[in-house]
Amino acid sequence: MSNRKIQMPREVYIDPGIIKDTGEICKSLHLDKKILIVTGQHTYDVGAKPVIESLEKDNIEYDVIKVSNASAESISEVEELITPDTTVIGVGGGRVIDVAKLSSFNRGVYFVSMPTTASHDGIVSPMASIKNPNTSISVTAHSPIAVIADSEVLAQSPFRLLAAGCADLIANFTAIKDWELAHRLKNESFSESAAALSIMSAHLITDNIANIKPNLEPSARIVMKSLFSGGMAISIAGSSRPASGSEHLFSHALDKILDKPALHGEQCGLGTIMMMYLHGGDWKAIRDALKAVQAPTTAKEIGIADEDIIEALMMAHEIRPERYTILGDNGISKEAAYELAYKTEVI
Ligand SMILES: NC(=O)C1=CN([C@@H]2O[C@H](COP(=O)(O)OP(=O)(O)OC[C@H]3O[C@@H](n4cnc5c(N)ncnc54)[C@H](OP(=O)(O)O)[C@@H]3O)[C@@H](O)[C@H]2O)C=CC1
Ligand SMILES: O=C(CO)COP(=O)(O)O
Ligand SMILES: [Zn+2]
């Protein structure tokens, strides 16, 4: 049997107020034996509470666990609560969704993705990233059986998180350039359809930039729909290649260096400006798009020191050596890193 399969969610809901129908949706999918809600400290009130109300209304048994990070320990804690009858619902931001996704995958049970914000493209994809001191890059787990995204809840989440989601999508522009380069130089296999879907998802943001505003349900819906199609590009490729190139390597390097990294999408946004410069593309257009969605474009805005930016640029090529990018096999020198960050006004 081929181990190359494309995984997709069975049902996807992106609607205002849909969170109140969680119980009904679980019943219609025959996932109503036992629910384990994985949530976070802040997302319990906005996400888990309405889910609990809905499950109680439909007489569905449930349990709740709050996790505070995407670590191996959190995964183990969640796994201990899973029985073969359990369906795991991840209700929260990226860390919570990753913990719910990976623990359900490890225990072979279904997973429902319920984002409380639209901050990155792992919401719909089969990838999960778990933090340890050595890496924050994603591994393949499984796709959610259903995605229930309440666009009203997303709209009420801090706009900084939605802006980060836009930046994670804008990163697709350089991720695809890197993939094309690897295809040409290293004969890496390339999916035209995954690449086209990835670029289209980024364009859904840049073409709608004037409509992406805080606290507006239609804005949150645009971002979530774009993250959905970006996630589908990842599903088709079977890896994060269509959405993660040199700009993500830079962000992963920052995750390693910094005690308190900024948001994933924010770091990737800075990386995209600089990597587009290296690709000889229109890096100013990337910067303008990020500014227009109120995502940061300088290290100072997110409290990262200039020297940490330089160090991350120099070590980025070592993060995932098997994935060829514009940084090449040997990376860039300190002088080149400084020049790059300075010319693009990231520092
Ligand atoms: N699987 C994949 O392919 C990918 C995974 N990632 C991973 O995802 C994580 C980043 O996700 P991200 O969402 O940016 O960050 P977090 O999951 O760290 O969430 C950031 C903060 O936002 C809070 N929050 C979320 N929703 C709301 C809301 N509606 N109202 C108020 N606060 C809210 C969270 O609360 P709380 O404290 O309750 O959690 C948390 O404190 C990283 O671990 C990254 O590695 C990133 C990209 C792709
Ligand atoms: O963040 C991602 C895509 O946006 C996942 O990428 P990584 O595989 O590099 O972790
Ligand atoms: Zn990303």
Largest sheet: 6 strands, parallel
Q: Count the strands?
A: 8
Poorly predicted regions: none
Q: Let me know the CATH homologous superfamily of the largest domain.
A: Dehydroquinate synthase-like - alpha domain
Helix content: 40-55%
Mean pLDDT score: 97
Rg, rounded, reads 19 Å
Briefly, what CATH class of the largest domain?
Answer: Mainly Alpha
Could you characterize what this model shows?
The protein has helices at 22-28, 43-57, 72-80, 94-107, 151-156, 159-170, 172-186, 192-206, 217-237, 246-257, 264-278, 283-292, 306-315, 334-343, and strands spanning 11-15, 34-39, 62-66, 86-92, 111-115, 127-128, 139-140, 146-150. It has two domains: 11-156, Rossmann fold (3-Layer(aba) Sandwich); 159-343, Dehydroquinate synthase-like, alpha domain (Up-down Bundle), CATH 1.20.1090. Helix 3 crosses helix 4, helix 6 (159-170) packs parallel to helix 11 (264-278) and helix 13 packs across helix 14 (334-343). The longest helix has 21 residues, at 217-237. The protein has 347 residues and is of the alpha/beta class. The protein has 14 helices and eight strands. The strands form two sheets. A six-stranded parallel β-sheet has the order 1-8-5-4-2-3. Strands 6-7 form a two-stranded antiparallel ribbon. The model has no long low-confidence stretch (mean pLDDT 97). Helix 2 links the parallel strand 2 (34-39) and strand 3. It binds NADPH dihydro-nicotinamide-adenine-dinucleotide phosphate, 1,3-dihydroxyacetonephosphate (13P) and zinc ion. 1,3-dihydroxyacetonephosphate (13P) binds at residues 120-121, 127, 129, 137-138, 168, 240, 243-244, 248.
